[in-house]
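Summary for the steering committee. One of the milestones for this cycle was to obtain a three-dimensional model of the protein with D-malate bound, which we needed before selecting residues for the alanine scan. The sequence and ligand used are listed below.
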Amino acid sequence: MILRVLGSAAGGGSPQWNCGCPVCTAVRSRAGLARTQSSIAVSADRRRWFLINASPDIRAQIEAFPGLHPHGDRTTPLEAVLLTDAELDHTLGLLLLREARALLLYATPAVHETLSAGSGILRTLERYCPVDWRTVTPGARLALADGLSCRAFDVPTTKRARFGPGADHGRVVGYRLTDERSGGTLVYLPAVQALTAALRAEIEGCTCLLIDGTCWRDDELVRLGLAGKTSREMGHLPIDGPDGSLAQLPSLGVERTIFVHLNNTNPVLLEHTPERRTVEERGMEVAMDGLEVQV
Ligand code: MLT
Ligand code: MN
Ligand code: ZN
């Protein structure tokens, strides 16, 4: 399969419109790459593409990627959208697809309910175009197309649901995608609070892992005076620290590990920082928009 990173930044993008932190300032002065919000596209053969999450930057992301451009009429290679959760940075883009003749949407019942009765994104979208909702059940295999299949798995989080109580089961999922022909496996995990034993088992031995790299330090936003919460409290395992992802991932036997969903404050966004060097010295990577990987 081919995976294309459409957007590698967390909610807000990099730089974020109202942020003057050192990294945002550096990116504005062209000392680092700008990044759009979190989303990837996956295809078995470059003919049909599946989006995982629909970011508020989706229009620019599609324009930047010829693989997703329409054919002569209004048919497009965009086959469906899969959702990992109902966060705005992963779902606002659905509204920007409202010109579609119909949309195929894969989401858990919990995410579907939040989008309908909570944020209302789905209720609004359905006034513009028919949405064919396919239920995602953690643990169940889903055949997508052309030998590409996926299985969602639950990602436990204590982050409070912003819209109503929301079921805990299926509120956040990750996806393990398999290309039946090449045998390649991709795990997409843009939001993870802790690498539990169950999650480690899902990741173990995959060909390529795209994982939550929101913050470098747990107290990154607190130190910068930008928020009162730690990274973990916001549902994101930090990269650094004794229990951070950098310390835990090497034992999982993954061929290629790439950090995604990078917050605009994270120093790994800039090429010449010690934090970036540390990631690369461990044989891991920091995603950028447009990155393609053959899995
Ligand atoms: C998150 O990943 O923590 C959220 O998407 C932040 C946000 O609301 O943008
Ligand atoms: Mn997010
Ligand atoms: Zn910033």
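Key point for the committee: DSSP finds nine helices and 14 strands in the chain.
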